[in-house]
Amino acid sequence: MYNGYTGTILRVDLGTGAITREALELQMAEDFIGGRGLASRLLCAELDPAVDPLGPENPLIFATGPLTGTGAPATSRYVVVCKAPLTGTIACSNSGGFFGPELKFAGYDVLIIQGESSEPVYLWINDKTVEIRPAESLWGKFPVDTEAALRKLTRPTAKVACIGPGGENLSLLAGVVNDGYRLAARSGVGALMGKKKLKAIAVHGTGSISLHDPQQFWKATMDMHEKITADPVSFGSFRAYGTASLVSLINEMGAYPTRNFQSDTFAGAAATSGEALAEDVLQRNRACFACPIACTRVSEVKDGPYQGRGEGPEYESIWALGALCGVSELAAVAKANFICGDYGIDTISTGATIACAMELFEKGALPEEDIGFPLKFGDAAAMVRAVAMTGQRKGFGEILADGSYRLATRYGHPEFFMGAKKLEMSAYSPRVFQGMALQYATSNRGACHVRGNTVAAELYGIPRYLAPEVLEQKEEMVRRPFQNSTAFVDSTGICLFTKFAITHREICALLAPATGLDFTFDRSIEQGDRIWNIERMFNLRAGFTSADDTLPQRVAEPSPDGPRAGSRALLHEHLQTYYQLRGWDESGRPTRAKLDELGLDDWWGVCSEA
Amino acid sequence: MTPQKPDTTEIAIVGAGPAGVAAAVIAARAGAAVTLLDENTNAGGQYYKQPTLAESGHKYPNSLASNIQQGRELLAGLNHPGIDLQCDTLVWNVSPEELVLYLCGPTGARALQAKRIIFSAGAYERVMPFPGWTLPGVIMAGGAQLLLKAQGLLPGRRFLLAGTGPLLQLAAVQLLEAGADIAAIVELQPRAEFLRTASKLWGHWDKLGQGIANQKKLLQAKVPIKYGHTIARALGENEVSGAVIMKVDGDGIPTPGSETTLEVDSICLNYGFIPATELPGIAGCTQYFDYNFGAFATKTNENLETSVAGIFAAGETCGIGGADVALLEGQLAGAVAARQLGLDPETDEAKLCQKQLQARTVAASLGKMFPVKPGLCALATDAVPVCRCEEISAGEVRAAIRMGVVQLNQLKPWTRVGMGRCQGRICGEILRQIVAHETGLALQEIQPFTARAPVKPVLLEEVGGAVADTGELTWEDHVGGYGVART
Amino acid sequence: MADYQADVIIVGGGIVGCATAYHLTRAGADVLLVERDGIGSGASGRAGGGVRQSARVSEEIPLAKASVALFPGLSDELGIDIEYIQAGNLRLAESADYRRPMQVDVARQQSHGLDVSWLEVADVVEIVPALRWQNIVGASFCAEDGHCNPFRLVTGFFNKAAQGGARVLLNCEVQNIVQTDSGQALVETPSHTARAPVVILAAGFGSQALCYQIGYDLPLANVRYESMITEPLPPLFQQMFGVASSDLFFRQTSNGGVHFGGGILEETGQEDIRTTSDNLQMAVAHISQLVTDLERAKLLRTWGGLDPSTPDGMPIIDYLNESVLLASGFCGHGLATGPIVGHHLAQWVLEGTRPAALAAFNRDRFDGWLQTKWTPSGSFAAVLATEDTQIAGSGAPGEGIPFMTPPPYEDSDETSGPRKLAINPQMCTGCRMCEVACAIKHEQAATQVQLRIQVVYPSDDFFLPIVCIHCEEMHCLKACTHEAMEINEQGVVSVIRENCTSCMECIFVCPTGGITHSPAKAAVVKCDLCDGDPACVRYCPSQAITFRHIDRPAYEKLATLMTDYLPARETR
Q: Is C311 an 8 Å CB contact of chain B?
């Protein structure tokens, strides 16, 4: 009997139409927990990481955690895992809303989509009955309209995860959109879903998630609830202004990268800050399943050229479509954010790609006739037009839709690509936050902030304050309390934003009574480490080496202006220490000892012999 | 009562007459697993009825002997490993969605699920009522042939054959050869019409030859053939002691005063044939009105597929056509069904289609020659029973028709016609003729009874037992919450 | 000029149409009856034949008693043997679960003056030895009920009406009824037109299309069942039988055939009279478990049955405009009441005033309620308001008011009376924590069904938890006739699960949707304020639900809020 888990993995082969159910092995649950960990382990067993990311062998895995849907605070998360179309690394895009819990109520922990369909289909999961149905009429619709249509085709209470036209056009920036606006955005997982001609997954579940020890679970939920509602960051500023509250803070620190990372402060930051957003664009806040924080923004630009409505923009979107492109017109940034939502494409990568194009254009490497109109930093209308073209993959959008790495190399300036392993960096300058520099370089899915957001320590002092520019102990901080810990949290189905208010102890205090399995604090770090290492092995087999654990040359040069002028990313100093702490050899490959410690074996013979 | 899993087969064929056997042989040779079902004791259907009594060396009249021999050769094809012949098995229901047949056989009730179904259940003989038609001694001409073939038994001594169509003369010859005395053959069509059949059969030497041979034998035996006549009354208290025949005009209306009485002890009737369409009807296959024979039959396309996916119809069920058409259509249906399952029947279906069409046109032209005109119903005076199971008279039916009740499905609850054990198999066509006669409606405007399970009465035990577990819910699941009572 | 002119045109040749035609012609009215197929070809002719007063909704009992009293004399009056046998109606309970609810229901019917009683199995088998006592726990028995040949009953009335001068058009489908300015109704069929001051619409499920054209949305669902009959058998029993789970009926007709049926109460959109092998086998298996030595009987025939059903199980008899008088939706038990309804309809047309006996069947009893849909399992399901239907009072209050504002009502110094749940939609973020807290408190698992509180999402920026607001009127307590509701220590109404018979009266009367039905518990569920410390209040992160004394004006605002947004409720 499973508690916390439903114990069933649903496998759907779009090629043959076969629908099978497998039992979840308890041992794998104990080692890899669920969500990111479990899905990554399943992915390693499903395919050889060297395959073509858009080929039929690359499965699309939707995985929930043991806490998803149990009703503890912020337990709404699910992940989409596969080999990343954009980067070729392992992809694990996370999202909230109500889709994850509904999948659990329908009785499934993990949904594995294999093979490809010849024509557009959608998957209808109604408790025990699972059907693959034609989706001809849905193809080409925006996510919000797709959901409304599916609610009529299936049940009014169905929850939907789908792709927008971006995913259909196989844009490598496309993500999976659930509950209308929530995007599992990064690494281009939407492109794989589009390649499989899977337009949407509609789920309806009437089951309930049984708990091993309900009283104890309920008590643990109550304390976590108290801690979160008392936390100034998550329940305070995030609840009031969403993540946008970071804009002015990070800009004042001089760590707010601007104009494709050419500088770290942005004059227009105030105009696009959280406070500005609150006055004219925000309507109200909205929550994911059982979440006390409710950080989602329902926003609307009432009139003018950028009229539109939707969710967000969050901090990363405001930065990528605003400061990174030098655009300070909030309405334009919001509109661009709505367009990305309509086409189902990742706002960070899209903004970064357009910023890269702007730099190429301003430096004469990208002729105007290729684009069709001038594309300069700060030109809001051009930015919005470029975002729309990227989503429709029309005209120059054909090239923009495949990300800034391919754009920069195509026009002979690879150095203008601001990211690592083909994934664009996020809104924290690595010149200033040394921890983030190491994190961007070594993150398993490319330069992203959610694999270990050391800003929490370097800015808020959570779990303890380490100045941004300090180097010592940064490797251990990045490895243990951030990267491994995030790997653990992403696997439980609980939202990362709770980490401002709680630590692993509270999460384990939930996991044990929910599942009845042996989840303790020190096991959680070991589990995080195990997950990180199988992701590392996957990337090694996919052809990545320690040479890819690097950052663009630009961030190694001093920051030209702002309060932190002169600071630069000192990655090379602590990369080797990081490898040693990781138990890897100098070329960043896990050692035999490390594998034995974690109970892993070298499936593809990529680890070091030592 | 736990529902058992249905047995499965690739091609299920209902009716082991000429069409069914031909289909089974072709499909089995192509490698298909065939289940051939028939409610009679052995295969052959009506046309190739096989003797059921042991080989007692009974000498059959030569025309019967050749038919029996032909039948035996055809049936020899059945001992093929791919064919599972199940006789004494009634198919009483079909559910078209999952192509499941519901059977009652020697081993009790079962369900059989197939990938393709071929309905080839043949036809029934048409009868028109007249005073005394229900007296013992009045039987169908085909029925008399069956008694001869199956048991070598003469159903009487001195016979009158009445009705219309070539079967009467063939049956008369067979009865003669078996030692019977034929008082007369009474053929509805006028002589000129009958002779024109010869011109129609030009080119089909076997049929023509047989027709002429029969005529010669009847002449030798000095059997009087009265054209443009019909039987008007059967005489006798509790069995047939004689018959009255009368002349009829072009519309089938008897001319008063032309009665002549005959001393006979048996009357054999045949007014043509009616396709057996109960199972296709239950499965929802579209029916069409066959003008040539004045009855509804199952509609099929050139590959003999019906309107329901996976279901074929061959032989008389698709329209009266005789044994040759049935054999051709059996082969065609068997071949197409096997081909659809990915097997190779090594036949040229196009050529088969072509031959089948030709045979059909000949049969159609023959059919036109022997129409049954509604005027004949004048013979069925008000006292004459038209529904034998429920003993409902023509008068009661006519009273309801006068009240405006002109469709069979409305006549049924009104007068109880068609509510008996035969569920309208016999009285259905009689009623359509009477309604046409009374109201002037065209025959095709009067719809037949709605086909419903069971095809023939079956034991409740057998119905309740054979629940096909095709993933359906059991009755326990259907006990919903305590709801408001309905009836 | 119309082909026909009559005093009254009756559309539909079923029991109601023919009985009304009979009574009208007897009073000398010039009647024209128009029927789409044949007389009794619809629900009436296909019915099970039961003539009963028992197991009916309370409002129908007086009508049924009056009508059943007519039956003994009908064969002579109509000049046709309607094969009426009055030997009682037995409604069998096949499992102990049904004993208590049926006993409660028998008490209800007795309170309406019906001679009905609960019998344990020993007495049941005493009356009917042919029953298999092993599979029966007991039965409710009404001695005055009986059964008849439905078709002969209908034709009896028709013959008399025809003899009385009524004219009839068979196989003639009415396609439109137009109200002309001269106060007459014009009835159009493909072949004829007819004009009359009064048109009685008694076409069963067929009435829905015509009502729609007249502008009335008749809430009718067509429930399909199947009937079977065996060959004539030696006498077994004379009673009419039903079962508590109401999916089987059976009787032995006067010619000896056992007529039985039921099966899946599938709800179909159109007149579907299919018969399926599953239903057939289930009904045969079911009756074989209740009646001895039926196995050797042969099944002769099956046919499809029609149940044009309204949401509350009662017919709708009312004028739609000054000419058209609707009489349909008899939910499969109209045969017995047909004769008296015909009499009252004729009286209504002749005297121009609604007879008291038909008062309960007015059509505006559905106005203001949810557009509910009858589902076979007996529970009502609120129909979700899809985008194209207008949500009452839309113009979501969230619009324009900046979020984080105080609740729409003030704290009142009112301290008397119980504390209640106060809902502030502006604070609600739609996180459904209240649902989870309530589910874990009552069901020990985060379940998604049988919710006592449920958040609705009328638009992407307005969210509202729908829950019982513990109204002073306590509609549900008054409506519950099974003593399944009581006032708990918190001073609010709570459900006694064992007594609940899922009769849905409480759901029907509750204006704010605070009660839902739980098929798993076979009972209704509602908020009972968790013994004083509501879990939803404790775990709502945004203080959208608070537990306080609220004054009358605030309560009224809350009630209208709930009623407005109830259609947006998700059904699970």
A: no
pLDDT at residue C293 tops 60: yes
C partners (3+ CB pairs within 8 A) are A, B
The one-letter amino acid at C425: P
Bridge partners, residue C188, by sequence: C176, C193
Helix H, strand E, coil C: the string for chain B is CCCECCEEEEEEEECCCHHHHHHHHHHHHCCCCEEEECCCCCCCCCCCCCCCCCCCCCCCCHHHHHHHHHHHHHHHCCCCCCEEEECCCEEEEEECCCCEEEEEECCEEEEEEEEEEEECCCEEECCCCCCCCCCCCEEEHHHHHHHHHHHCCCCCCEEEEEECCHHHHHHHHHHHHCCCEEEEEEECCCHHHHHHHHHHCCCCHHHHHHHHHHHHHHHHCCCCEEECEEEEEEECCCCCCEEEEEEECCCCCECCCCCEEECCCEEEEECCEEECCHHHHHHCCCEEEECCCCEEEECCCCCCECCCCCEEECHHHHCCCHHHHHHHHHHHHHHHHHHHCCCCCCCCHHHHHHHHHHHHHHHHHHHHHCCCCHHHHHHCCCCCEEECCCCEEHHHHHHHHHCCCCCHHHHHHHHCCCCCCCCCCCHHHHHHHHHHHHHCCCHHHCCCCCCCCCCCCEEHHHHHHCCECCCCCCHHHHCCCCCCCCC
Rounded CA-CA distance C56/A399 in Å is 72
Q: Is A290 on the interface with C (CB under 8 A)?
A: yes
Query: Which of B389, B472, B486 to mutate to test binding with chain C, by most C CBs within 10 Å of its CB?
Result: B486
| Residue B448 Cα distances to B281, B420, C204, angstroms | 10, 16, 25
Question: What's the rounded Cα separation, in Å, for the pair B160 and B145?
Answer: 14
Whether C430 and chain A come into contact, CB under 8 Å, resolves to yes
Q: Encode C521-556: b = buried (16+ Cβ within 10 Å), e = exposed.
A: ebbbbbbbbbeeebbbbbbbbbebbbbebbeeebbe
Verify whether the Cβ–Cβ distance C431 to A291 is below 8 Å.
Answer: yes
Residue C270: predicted pLDDT: 58
With touching defined as 3 or more inter-chain CB pairs under 8 Å, the answer for chains C and A is: yes
Range with top average pLDDT, A399-408, B476-485, C382-391: A399-408
Q: Which other chains touch chain B, taking contact as 3+ CB pairs less than 8 Å apart?
A: C
Share of chain C above pLDDT 70, in %: 86
- Do the Cβ atoms of B74 and B48 come closer than 8 Å? yes
Judged by a CB distance cut-off of 8 A, whether residue B407 touches chain C is yes
> What is A409-460 written as a DSSP string?
HHTT-GGG--EETTEE--SS-TTT-HHHHHHHHH-BTBS-GGG--THIIIII
The partner residue sitting opposite C378, judged by closest CB among B407, B413, B484, is B484
C330/C64 Cα distance (integer angstroms): 12
Q: Angle at Cα B181 formed by Cα B176 and Cα B182, nearest 5°?
A: 85
Inter-chain CB proximity B407 and C171 less than 8 Å: yes
A283 touches chain C (CB under 8 A): yes
Q: Are C376 and B477 in contact (CB under 8 A)?
A: no
List the structure tokens of B145.
Answer: 């042939």
Task: Name the most confidently modeled range: A357-366, B214-223, C106-115.
Answer: A357-366
Instruction: Measure the CA–CA gap between C413 and A105, rounded to whole angstroms.
Output: 43
This complex has an ipTM of 0.49
Using omega within 30 degrees of 0 as the cis cutoff, is the peptide bond preceding A463 cis?
A: yes
Structural element, H or E, at residue C140: strand C138-142
| Tens of pLDDT, residues A54-70 | 999 999 999 999 999 88
Window 70-109 of B: residues touching C by CB (8 A cutoff) are 93-95, 100, 102
Residue B460's identity, in one-letter code, is L
